[in-house]
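User: Here's a structure from my thesis project, written as structure tokens. My advisor, Dr. K., wants to see whether a designed sequence matches the one we expressed. Can you design one independently, without my sequence as a hint?
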């Protein structure tokens, strides 16, 4: 089983490869798919990120099938389904790292700064507003939003207990969509 330190190292090395290379070196083939089907998944990290098509976690971290447990939605906000999915990843799949991956030029943050939205999108922008408060700098807001999601995860009884036992670490990071680089909030 991976440790938090090993998982974080893999993510950092994968991002360096992605940001400075033109391909994903991960191995994709029938054998990998069959092995995962026969033996189940054993991801080394859970990544909660935005549904933005410019933010592909498997590519950003240069990994293939079975490496990451990915949870996505607009704005990388945490609601009951995302929280339950993160609890599942930590408790049942025993991932040692849960990473909330925000990103630059986030449409959910930009929409919130512009005054919010209607329909069910309003639920997302309302959550982002709780995270950013009165801040107006988009880059600061992206960090505040990601860190708020970390706080929501840590409010989970299950995740809080696992983190206190040293079985999981929850942290935030921001992906720069222009450079391909991830900055981790250590």
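Assistant: Designed independently from the structure alone:
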């Amino acid at each position: 089983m991976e440790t938090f330190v090993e998982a974080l190292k893999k993510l950092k090395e994968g991002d360096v490869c992605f940001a400075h290379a033109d391909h994903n070196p991960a191995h994709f083939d029938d054998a990998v798919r069959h092995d995962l089907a026969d033996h189940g998944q054993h991801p080394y990290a859970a990544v909660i990120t935005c549904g933005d098509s410019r933010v592909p976690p498997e590519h950003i971290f240069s990994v293939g099938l079975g490496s990451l447990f990915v949870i996505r939605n607009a704005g990388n906000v945490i609601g009951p389904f995302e929280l339950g999915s993160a609890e599942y990843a930590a408790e049942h799949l025993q991932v040692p790292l849960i990473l909330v991956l925000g990103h630059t030029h986030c449409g959910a943050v930009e929409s919130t700064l512009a005054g919010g939205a209607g329909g069910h999108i309003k639920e997302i922008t309302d959550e982002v507003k709780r995270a950013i408060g009165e801040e107006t700098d988009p880059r600061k807001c992206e960090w505040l939003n990601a860190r708020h999601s970390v706080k929501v995860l840590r409010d989970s009884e299950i995740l809080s207990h696992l983190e206190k036992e040293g079985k999981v670490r929850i942290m935030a990071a921001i992906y720069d969509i222009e450079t391909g680089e991830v900055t981790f909030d250590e």
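When you compare it with your expressed construct, this may help: The longest helix spans residues 4-20.
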